[in-house]
Amino acid sequence: MKTELLSLLRRAGGYVSGQQLCEQLHVSRTAVWKVMEQLKEEGYQIEAVRNKGYCLKGSPDILSEAEIASRISGRWAGGEVCYFQETDSTNTQAKALAEKGAPHGTIVAADCQLAGKGRRGRVWESPSGRDIYVTLLLRPQIAPVKAPMLTLVMAMAVAEAVREYTGLEAGIKWPNDIVVSGKKVCGILTEMSVEADYISYVVIGTGINVNQPSFPEELAERASSLYLETGRQWKRAPLLALVLEKFEQYYALFSASEDLSGIQEAYNRILVNAGREVRIMEPEGEYTAFARGINEKGELLVQKDGGQEEAVYAGEVSVRGIYGYV
Ligand code: BTN
Fold this sequence. Notes:
Blueprint: H1 2-12, H2 18-25, H3 29-41, E1 45-49, E2 53-58, H4 65-69, E3 81-84, H5 90-99, E4 107-110, E5 132-138, H6 147-166, E6 171-173, E7 177-180, E8 183-195, E9 198-208, H7 217-220, H8 226-230, H9 236-257, H10 264-269, E10 277-282, E11 285-294, E12 300-304, E13 309-312, E14 318-321
Parallel strand pairs: 3-4
Antiparallel strand pairs: 1-2, 4-5, 5-9, 6-7, 7-8, 8-9, 10-11, 10-14, 11-12, 12-13
Helix pairs in contact: 2-3, 6-9
The structure holds biotin (BTN).
């Protein structure tokens, strides 16, 4: 009921009478009052005025199920929200839910991760109260070879959401890091489960550095947060809701053609590697090339020194700028 109550207060944008709330939620006045008290304890600023009703004046920066769910406006992404104050990894939890039959669009969010996972077996530091750790569960009916494209769809959604929410000029470092002023503010880790040549499920884990105030010296040159880039703190739940809204939009484009042809242009416009020299590190060896942009499969089109064109698949390759991270 917390979610419904918060949604009603948000939608109203002003005062809603106790009577109205009771009628819409089909509960008693005492029940409404009790939930209002709980919300206040969680940090919500709720004003109650005789003859006018209740008004939501402010929300705390939390990622609770009700806080997230009451902000989601889309049709399916975030249709079910599972929240942990603390967990090992939202990807691990999302996979466990998937195995139990959780539906397409379920999200798992956490305030803190004790075993946050990065790409290539790295650790993703996940302290509490600052950042977004979220995993989206999908059950797409596509060939497993197309799964990496979904990571690019998420990268596009995060970049767009960050641009709209903060006004920062967020870009993408191929295939799926979100960068601001040449530094990484978000990483994405996609994992999938395949059964007999079809995808059983895909989990897309996204970590956004929102209010992180500093980074260890060895990372400070390459990593940043929205707080460090703007000089102000940002509430996490509205940004997360916006990411999911954008994901739905881009996913619809993806589904229509089962490739990235509908997104390619927008992606290439904010691709920070485009027009730069990059170092491609493949299991078979390394080379330097000139990056152009992605094709409809999400491969990075590069031109080697001899003029030869190459399409790099977003599997086990790593791409660096020749002078640094971008
Ligand atoms: C990277 O190395 O760039 C990918 C980082 C992905 C981190 C996110 S945080 C939410 C989700 N849960 C995890 O354990 N990892 C991803």
